[in-house]
Amino acid sequence: MKVIISPAKSLEFKKHIPYETYSKPEFLNCAEYLIEELKELSKEEIGNLMNISYKLSEINFYRYKSWNKNLHEGTRQAIYAFDGDVYKGLNSYDFNKSEIDFAQNNLRILSGLYGVLRPLDLIKPYRLEMGIKLENDKGNNLYKYWEYRLTNYINNDLKEDKEKILLNLASKEYSKVLNRGYMDKDIKIISPVFKEYKNNNYKIVAIYAKKARGLMAQYIIKNKINKLEEIKEFNLEGYAFREDMSTEETIVFTRG
Known about the structure:
Layout: E1 2-5, H1 28-38, H2 43-50, H3 54-66, E2 76-77, H4 78-81, H5 85-90, H6 97-106, E3 107-111, E4 115-117, E5 122-123, H7 142-157, E6 165-168, H8 172-175, E7 188-198, E8 201-203, H9 206-222, H10 228-231, E9 240-242, E10 250-255
Parallel strand pairs: 1-3, 1-6, 6-7, 7-10
Antiparallel strand pairs: 2-5, 3-4, 7-8, 9-10
């Protein structure tokens, strides 16, 4: 089983890193190609492309200009670099060495710039969401650039696994880069859904759902889970599996 999650817009590059071990991103050359395309854009063009403020455009303009493939300059392991709601739930700073090793083998972070990252892959500060319509040699958006590469990567990643399950804890923006048509037929994609009890009904609340994805990834890593049935025992922060709401491809957890 492999678990996929999304990256985060917010980054943390100053906090102490618990482990110095690192790895190299699989698609570093592809990231370099995208950076070269981004280097051609002005601050205003970056702002329009990403729908961000001028201040953020300026920050990313200089990030692109200074970006290079030197992994020993201004880099940090991905699992310690991202700092959004998912990563607050993941709480990777609390992992011990064996848990980090398990995460390295089983957790994958989808990325608009790097394609896919293992937790210990070194990255530089960046902003490039998967949904961005950046012109490239495969088409007019990042989905076209990455879909074959990433789907094939997942096929190979799961090739030796006994239970060929891809647990999708990524947002739709990122998970839809994987093309089911290219994916091996024996791979099962399972998508957990997290709901809160509000106004006499169960609803998805985005901010809680994001943290819950991280909590589930944490639960899988700390318990070294590799079977679907064991995931259904997830119970952090009051969540419980609801068989009555679940389907073959969607497993639902509720609280409240």
